[in-house]
């Protein structure tokens, strides 16, 4: 009798321990930071407001000053840009006080199509809700909020009730702090002065279809459809530099935009990637790039950049996004640690068709 | 008391006459080394009988080869017949040598209890020929003690060889191609393209400068 009682007495603490571990695992999973990393459900009743704002850009001529503000704590976090919008013609952007360095974005069906995809991505990723009316710089605006699945606000829009123009937009990082804010001030309706000697034009003309992207992937190009759960490929274009293809892939969550430029090759060991504005990219010739891969440069005005080489390709990332999103985009791309033994073996297996 | 010697093999093969058979059994009852060797021979015979495939097992072939090499001087090929022109089976029986399991006390078989090391003792084979296989077996036993029993060892070795060849090939194939061009990304163009699609001012200065000019479209092949 006693001999039968001992095993059950010993197994009871084990069972209790297992149950406690399972409970701890469940609680940890419920409280993990990835709980919000799913598309948010909602009525999306703010989408019509945003669609009307996108349409207004093609209908209302205006000039204004666009104030872009980066995250708090950054130096030179504010940039002021003069904006002139002419429906059917395009939009001219020039830094205030340096109008000669203007950039012109011509109106095109490609950009209209991109706007549609960005709005769709916003609707798919967030719950886009009409948050009522608010005053912004003395103008009455309708506020639209993009909420994450956990209820936090990822982005907020202010749409002018009179003209339908988008007067303000703020993107919030995961902690809830503003990462990038854009405000239109000094709004003047009507056609403003068009800058001379502008640069810029249309997006690269060779839009890549799904079949062309699949073909490139088959030839070793890294063109994922997603960089993160909320960063989906919304546009892919290609051009040629020195007779070699360069691919521009645009990823977005509807609020932010990340551009990934990919080209075959490797960085010159003698070329310093130091940029003119003082930002320093990855190391030369691949040296030191591993330690800098997770580092993205910039951020004063909510814009980031990074460049590195991996697996016979050079990647350049330019992002208008919160730091966390830009960093996740960079780390989702091939790691530059291609100088190690196992990296070389992995690359060889891929070339031999085993991976 | 002498050991069974050749009679041990005949006993296992059932070739002894009734009287000799009885005598051998009586000896086996008393002699632990001979009993052990008889047991080993029976196992070997059962294993040989179990080989039904036309192609002999490679392990078995290896052992055959090593056995044949024991008969003659080093340097003979595995296909050469053993010395004396006899094949496997014609070799003197194991009973003339020390039992496989060794003897208690670890002494030489000639020094075994009850077996005086006299030159006149009837021994079917020369002492030197009997010592070599023993030494080989003892070495194998020592290795067997060092490593745990692993029946799939041959497959593990084959797998290791394949993996090594695969990794080596992948390492060679994964090297930098001489044709990989050295490129300098046109950051100015990228910044403009990004600005056009995002309709923001470029993240880097879009105007061409001296930094871009010498390499603007530079591309070389190393």
What does this protein look like?
The complex is a heterodimer of chains A (355) and B (222). Chain A is of the alpha+beta class and 355 residues long. Chain A is built from seven helices and 18 strands. Chain A folds into two domains: 47-189, Lipoprotein localisation LolA/LolB/LppX (outer membrane lipoprotein receptor (LolB), chain A); 206-352, Phosphorylase Kinase, domain 1 (2-Layer Sandwich), CATH 3.30.200.100. Chain A has helices spanning 2-31, 47-57, 109-125, 210-218, 289-292, 323-332, 341-352; strands at 62-69, 78-86, 90-95, 103-106, 127-136, 139-147, 153-160, 166-172, 178-189, 206-207, 226-228, 231-241, 244-252, 257-264, 266-267, 297-298, 303-310, 313-320. Chain A has a nine-stranded antiparallel sheet. In chain A, strands 10, 11, 12, 13, 14, 16, 17 and 18 form an eight-stranded antiparallel sheet that branches. In chain A, strand 3 (90-95) and strand 4 form a beta hairpin. Chain B contains seven helices and two strands. Chain B has helices at residues 6-13, 18-30, 32-50, 58-70, 127-146, 153-173, 187-198; strands at residues 181-183, 219-221. Chains A and B meet through strand 3, strand 12, strand 13, strand 14 and strand 15 of A and helix 6, strand 1 and helix 7 of B.
Task: Please render the helix and strand layout as text.
The complex is a heterodimer of chains A (355) and B (222).
Chain A: H1 2-31, H2 47-57, E1 62-69, E2 78-86, E3 90-95, E4 103-106, H3 109-125, E5 127-136, E6 139-147, E7 153-160, E8 166-172, E9 178-189, E10 206-207, H4 210-218, E11 226-228, E12 231-241, E13 244-252, E14 257-264, E15 266-267, H5 289-292, E16 297-298, E17 303-310, E18 313-320, H6 323-332, H7 341-352
Antiparallel strand pairs in A: 1-2, 1-9, 2-3, 3-4, 5-6, 6-7, 7-8, 8-9, 10-12, 11-12, 12-13, 13-14, 14-18, 16-17, 17-18
Chain B: H1 6-13, H2 18-30, H3 32-50, H4 58-70, H5 127-146, H6 153-173, E1 181-183, H7 187-198, E2 219-221
Antiparallel strand pairs in B: 1-2
